[in-house]
Design brief:
The strands form 3 sheets. The chain has a 9-stranded mixed beta sheet. The protein has a two-stranded antiparallel sheet with strand order 2-3. The chain is built from 10 helices and 13 strands. It has helices at 36-45, 61-67, 71-79, 109-114, 117-120, 142-152, 215-221, 232-241, 263-275, 281-297; strands at 5-9, 30-31, 34-35, 51-56, 97-102, 125-128, 132-134, 157-163, 173-180, 185-192, 203-211, 246-250, 257-259. A hairpin with a 2-residue loop joins strand 2 and strand 3. It is globular. The chain has a single domain (5-297), classed as Spore Coat Polysaccharide Biosynthesis Protein SpsA, Chain A, CATH 3.90.550.10. By secondary structure, the protein is α/β, with parallel strands linked by helices. Bound molecules: uridine 5'-triphosphate (UTP). The site of uridine 5'-triphosphate (UTP) has 21 residues, from helix 4.
Length: 299
């Protein structure tokens, strides 16, 4: 495939998850048995991405530590006869080059991506939000599909979308569809957090994108928008207005985006991954069913 590099922005403050995120990155929160960014890295690796540029910021060192091979820990596990735990560190051996760059000031997602420009240069690249998991246990093929369509249609950008309930459009970038094709569509525009009444669809951006390097030119010309942040959505809109071809692919049926950016969504994600955990899932489901039943009968 033509694209083997991803930018993973992880520099956000995560204020919607305070106090949890006061001294730890939201991208390192546990969802079931793994931290969020590990799912993101595993999903990207199995989609053929072997260079990942993490855009980090203050207080995000735990992410770098997590992906460093820890030979002392491996030796200690062997010494204490805990070889069975070695498997849980298999992700350290993924064939991936991790590159870290900084966003010194948190000026928004668009700005974070722009901070990766000196590393990315002129190549096309994936953007994968470091606080969002696609599908349970990161088995999603969406990034492969995005890259394939990007190549075959010679697009300027391709974005993953998820259909959300109408009342939730106010939280996302929403697609204004120009034309529908069999399993993808072309965008007429992308609207950041529209009101329910003004929303052109229920198709919400789902945390995975592929872009030509020309997106950097649009990001560098984008002024601060909603929330006084440089919005990626505004740069994509400008690209479309200039005649750029931006396409969308809906997530596969049954596949969901887990956004670890707010409490309701984080709790749902943890619950879903816990009940589907290969080792503890059955036990936890039984506990959850019994507990809910107990609560119902005591109401
Ligand atoms: P969010 O849009 O959820 O923003 O980030 P946030 O600042 O992290 O969270 P709140 O609004 O304060 O609760 C989506 C992704 O973009 C990254 C985040 O780390 C997250 O992975 N991001 C966001 C940056 O890298 N830099 C920013 O300035 C903003």
């Amino acid at each position: 495939m033509s694209v083997d590099l991803a930018v993973v922005p992880v520099a956000g403050r995560g204020t919607r998850l305070l106090p949890l995120t006061k001294s730890q990155p939201k991208e390192m929160l546990a969802v079931g048995a793994k931290p969020v960014t590990q799912y993101v890295a595993e999903e990207l690796e199995q989609s053929g991405i072997n260079r990942m540029v993490f855009v980090t910021g203050p207080g995000k060192q735990a992410i770098e530590n997590h992906f460093d091979p820890d030979t002392e820990l491996i030796t200690a596990l062997r010494e204490y006869g805990q070889e069975d735990l070695l498997e849980s560190l298999d992700f350290e051996r993924m064939d991936v080059d991790y590159i870290y760059t900084r966003q010194g000031r948190q000026l928004g997602l668009g700005h974070a991506i722009l901070c990766a420009r000196p590393v990315v240069g002129e190549q096309s690249f994936v953007v994968a939000l470091g606080d969002s998991i696609i599908g349970v246990h990161a088995q999603s093929q969406i990034v492969k599909d995005l890259i394939q369509l990007f190549d075959s249609e010679k697009a300027d950008g391709v974005i993953a979308f998820e259909t959300v309930p109408r009342e939730e459009v106010v939280r996302y970038g929403i697609a204004d569809v120009r034309t529908n094709h069999e399993d993808w569509f072309e965008l007429a525009d992308l609207i950041e957090k529209p009101s329910v009444a003004e929303s052109p669809s229920r198709l919400a951006v789902a945390a995975r994108y592929v872009f030509r390097a020309s997106i950097f030119d649009y990001l560098s010309k984008t002024d601060a928008g909603k929330g006084n942040e440089i919005q990626l959505t505004d740069a994509i809109s400008a690209m479309i207005r200039d005649g750029g071809r931006v396409l969308g692919i809906p997530l596969a049926t049954g596949e969901r985006r887990f956004d670890i950016g707010n409490f309701p969504s984080y709790f749902r994600a943890f619950f879903e991954f816990a009940i589907q955990d290969p080792q503890y899932g059955q036990m936890f489901s039984k506990f959850a069913r019994e507990r809910l039943h107990e609560m119902d009968t005591h109401e």
